[in-house]
Amino acid sequence: MLADRTPSIDGGRLLRRGTAVVAGLTVLSPAFAWSAQRVNYTEPLEHAAETTGATAHAVTTLPGLLPDYGIAGVDPYLGTLVSGFVGAGLVLAVGWLVGRPLTTDREPR
Predict the structure, then answer these.
(1) 49-72: pLDDT as tens digits
(2) Do 30 and 77 meet the contact criterion of CB atoms below 8 Å apart?
(3) How deeply is 66 buried, as exposed, middle or buried, from its count of CB atoms within 10 A (0-12, 13-18, 19+)?
(4) How far is the C-alpha of 73 from the C-alpha of 60, rounded, in Å?
């Protein structure tokens, strides 16, 4: 009874819409970086670290894949755009790999 009333989810349509939203926000990321620079915005965690003196004792044990959301030697806005696509792609890949065993519509092997 309940299965008759439960709407089916079109996974392909959902994936296309989600990808379009993520791609749109990623394309807009340089505009967000530009506007943050215009208003002199900095991360609140950086202020807290400076206030408490934690920056004097900071040690980088594992550098980031794309530190400061950019690529060294590249225009900062282009670097932000590229790092946005790389980050979105990584999240998509990890989500797909984690969700793959959870799908039930595949044929058993």
Answers:
(1) 889 988 888 887 877 778 877 888
(2) yes
(3) middle
(4) 21
CA nearest to 99, candidates 29, 23, 18: 18
Q: Give the per-residue SS3 of 4-32.
A: HHCCCCCHHHHHHHHHHHHHHHHHHHHHH
Burial class (CB within 10 angstroms; exposed 0-12, middle 13-18, buried 19+) of 85 = middle
Closest C-alpha to 92, from 4, 9, 21 = 21
pTM of the model: 0.61
> What whole-number distance in Å separates Cα of residue 69 and Cα of residue 80?
5
